[in-house]
């Protein structure tokens, strides 16, 4: 049984999170580094890997889990494809006590991934409107810590957003508004749920 609403409702405000972190990318970055610093590990790589494992083992209401492969660890009736132009990929740098954005790497295929990395859509963090955290797993899972605008959703079950008959807030019944609203319409997975999403750049 699918616990998420159908795409016509799920995408009313884009792909939103139930409890998103601060929207500004620089604040997201600070929050992410803070969360990673709390993990157990004697090196930066160990701490990053520990946080990746934490995200994999526990669904979080501030995280949108996706896969960068044709197969996914998640089961869903709705398979979304996210396409983000101008993607820039960086490995982690710094130390375990002061994580930093490391070297930029030229990766265009999941098979090239050898360790956890950071996803931006600009060459510098302050200019990016996205922040993704890759887990170096078989499916190369990428977690985003912000709402995903509908302009980056290219399809769901091979249908474009234009073909999904996406509703407006006014189209929802009173019961649906009660079920899916949280100050704004935030139609997102609750903890321990995830969309099945493939990443294409």
Describe the structure.
The protein is α+β, with helices and mostly antiparallel strands. Helices cover 19% and strands 24% of the residues. The strands form 3 sheets. Strands 1-7-6-5-3-4 form a 6-stranded antiparallel β-sheet, with helices on one face. The longest helix has 14 residues, at 44-57.
DSSP, total strands: 11
Report the uncertain regions: 182-196
| Rg from Cα | 17 Å
Helix content range: 10-25%
Q: Order the strands across the largest sheet as they lie in space.
A: 1-7-6-5-3-4
Percent range for β-strand residues: 15-25%
Report, as a whole number of angstroms, the end-to-end distance.
31 Å
Mean pLDDT: 80
Main pleated-sheet profile = 6 strands, antiparallel
Cα shape: globular
Q: Any chance you could write out the topology, listing elements then pairs?
A:
Elements: H1 7-10, H2 25-37, H3 44-57, E1 64-67, E2 79-83, E3 88-95, E4 98-105, E5 117-120, E6 132-134, E7 141-144, E8 153-156, H4 174-180, E9 181-182, E10 184-185, E11 196-200
Main features:
201 residues; alpha+beta; six-stranded antiparallel β-sheet; three-stranded mixed β-sheet; 19% helix
Question: In a few lines, what is going on in this structure?
Answer:
By secondary structure, the chain is of the alpha+beta class. The protein is built from 4 helices and 11 strands. About 7% of the residues have low confidence.
């Amino acid at each position: 049984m699918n616990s998420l609403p159908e795409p016509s409702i799920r995408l009313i405000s884009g792909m939103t999170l139930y409890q998103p972190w601060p929207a500004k990318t620089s604040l997201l970055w600070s929050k992410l580094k803070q969360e990673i610093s709390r993990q157990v590990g004697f090196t930066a790589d160990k701490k990053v890997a520990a946080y990746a494992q934490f995200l994999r083992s526990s669904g979080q209401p501030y995280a949108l889990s996706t896969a960068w492969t044709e197969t996914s660890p998640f089961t869903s009736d709705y398979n979304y494809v996210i396409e983000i132009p101008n993607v820039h990929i960086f490995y982690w740098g710094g130390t375990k006590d002061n994580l930093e954005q490391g070297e930029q790497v030229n990766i265009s295929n999941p098979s090239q991934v050898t360790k956890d990395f950071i996803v931006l859509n600009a060459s510098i963090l302050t200019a990016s409107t996205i922040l993704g955290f890759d887990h170096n797993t078989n499916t190369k899972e990428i977690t985003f810590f912000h709402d995903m605008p509908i302009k980056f959703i290219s399809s769901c079950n091979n249908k474009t957003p234009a073909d999904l008959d996406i509703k407006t807030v006014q189209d929802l019944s009173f019961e649906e508004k009660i079920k899916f609203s949280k100050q704004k319409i935030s139609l997102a997975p609750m903890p321990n749920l995830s969309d099945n999403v493939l990443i294409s750049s």
